[in-house]
Structure formats: structure tokens, C-alpha cells
Design goal:
It is a single chain. With 236 residues, this protein is an alpha/beta fold. Helices cover 39% and strands 27% of the residues. The protein folds into two domains: 151 residues, P-loop containing nucleotide triphosphate hydrolases (Rossmann fold); 68 residues, no CATH class. The protein is globular and about 50 Å long. It binds adenosine-5'-diphosphate and magnesium ion (MG).
Length: 236
């Protein structure tokens, strides 16, 4: 396992947002974290990224992660694309991409990687001098994902990348996410859009008010009527 969370608990003052959650992500796996609004998905992603205090244990590459240690986590390869993408709209597309190589020591290789990213996703090259806010929602999410990939993550945490995107833009983005697995990356994909997400994920956890209420191989969860009715809003 590249990541194992055991007995993870996170509180916001009196609110117990995450109430004893176990999650594993294997090397090269895409793991979906599904659940309705308020279930605790973002809280888990933010705790793993080192942006929140937590109780319990998060082990990444055989070492315990410390709470509130985000910058060290990024350097070790744990990279979060937050809900809302974290794009700086007034900066150019290229300046946003450049933020992805900020933490890298291998600068000349990093700059070459940035150029390659602009070729791989031509919209990011064509619009490089435009303000990022001028991109569409789908393009902004692509920019945020590309920026995260440039920091050479081993474990990519994506918090609701499909939020506000049309189904086609979501499908394209999920295709990009599937490609990253081929590059040896592990992904924790936080989503509300269960059905579309299960098509790209290997395994999934369903979260309800801070607890895991179902988990298993993605394909099995799509086909299981009990899971489908209870957690995915019925068949279809
Ligand atoms: N900064 C915060 N302060 C207080 N409560 C919060 C905060 N962020 C989230 N919560 C609460 O924690 C619970 C889980 O939220 P969140 O992790 O954002 O859920 P999700 O991402 O699944 O929608 C919710 O009840 C939410 O209201
Ligand atoms: Mg959320």
C-alpha cells in the first residue's frame, strides 16, 4: 500500500466530521471516495494532504504522516488538487503551471516537463499568456490537474474534479486521470458523481456522515443492487 489510513478521526471543534475511517490505496490504484455533500470527503483529503489536525494513523510509503505538515507531504509526493481547483485566476495559465514545479529541485528537467505538458494538452500551451480565469471550467480543472502532475506526485488527491463540469468535460478529465495510472501514479478520487467515477476507479469507499458504509471493487459496486439503491441513487 502506498497509503493506509487507520481509525482516522477529524473534528472541527464540536463537529466530528470523520469518525474512524480506514482507507487503503495501493500503488498504481485509482480509489474513489464517494458520498453526499457533507459526508466528510474533503476533510479526509485535506487531512491526508497535511492541511488539518487528525487522530488515528495515516501511513504513506511506510512512514506516518504528521498532521498539519502539508509542505513536507508535497515534497514527499502527496499532492492535493482542492475542491474549487485552487487556480489563481488573475495569473496566466503558464504562471499557474509554473507553480507546479516550484517545489522541484531538478529545475531544468522541470521546465522541460512543463513544456511537454503544454504540448500534451495544447489548450494549456495556446492560452499560456491568458489569465487562467478566461479558461472554461473544464479547462481550469485540466490546468489544476496538470499543475499537480508537474510537481511529480506519487499520490494524487483530487477533490471533486467534476464539480460544475458538463458530462463531456468530466469524461475527458476522467480519461486524463485514467492515463495517470499508466504513469505509475496512485489516485484518491473524491467525487459525488458515483456512477461516472466508478467507471474509472479500481475500488471505492462510500462515506456517510464521517463513516465508511460500503467499500469494494468498483465494478462490483456498480453491479450490486443493494449498493446501487442505497448509495448511488438507484439503478441506471
Ligand atoms: N471548516 C469547517 N468548520 C466546521 N465544520 C466544517 C468545516 N469544513 C467542513 N465542516 C463540516 O464537516 C463535515 C464534513 O464536511 P466535508 O469534509 O467538507 O464534506 P464533503 O467534502 O463530503 O462534502 C460537514 O458536516 C461540514 O459541515
Ligand atoms: Mg467536499
Amino acid at each position: 500500500m502506498i497509503l493506509s489510513a487507520r481509525g482516522l478521526q477529524v473534528r472541527y471543534g464540536a463537529i466530528a466530521a470523520v469518525r474512524g475511517v480506514d482507507i487503503d490505496v495501493a500503488e498504481g490504484e485509482i480509489v474513489a471516495l464517494l458520498g453526499a455533500n457533507g459526508a466528510g470527503k474533503s476533510t479526509i483529503a485535506r487531512a491526508i494532504a497535511g492541511l488539518l489536525p487528525f487522530q488515528g494513523e495515516i501511513v504513506y510509503k511506510d512512514q506516518k504522516l504528521r498532521p498539519n505538515d502539508a509542505e513536507r507531504n508535497v515534497r514527499r509526493g502527496v499532492v492535493l488538487v482542492p475542491e474549487g481547483r485552487g487556480i489563481l485566476g488573475r495569473m496566466t495559465v503558464e504562471e499557474n503551471l509554473a507553480m507546479g514545479i516550484y517545489t522541484r529541485a531538478d529545475k531544468s528537467q522541470a521546465i522541460a516537463d512543463l513544456k511537454r505538458m503544454q504540448e500534451r494538452f495544447p489548450i494549456l500551451g495556446q492560452r499560456r499568456h491568458n489569465a487562467a480565469s478566461l479558461l472554461s471550467g473544464g479547462e481550469q480543472q485540466l490546468l489544476a490537474t496538470a499543475r499537480a502532475l508537474l510537481s511529480k506526485p506519487r499520490l494524487l488527491l483530487l477533490d471533486e474534479p467534476s464539480l460544475g463540469l458538463a458530462p463531456q468535460a468530466t469524461a475527458y478529465l476522467f480519461g486524463v486521470i485514467a492515463e495517470t495510472r499508466a504513469e505509475g501514479l496512485s489516485v484518491l478520487l473524491v467525487e459525488q458523481k458515483a456512477r461516472q467515477t466508478l467507471k474509472v476507479a479500481d475500488r471505492a469507499y462510500v462515506l456517510e456522515t464521517g463513516r465508511v458504509v460500503a467499500s469494494g471493487p468498483a465494478q462490483k459496486m456498480i453491479e450490486d443492487p443493494a449498493v446501487s439503491d442505497a448509495f448511488l441513487g438507484g439503478p441506471g
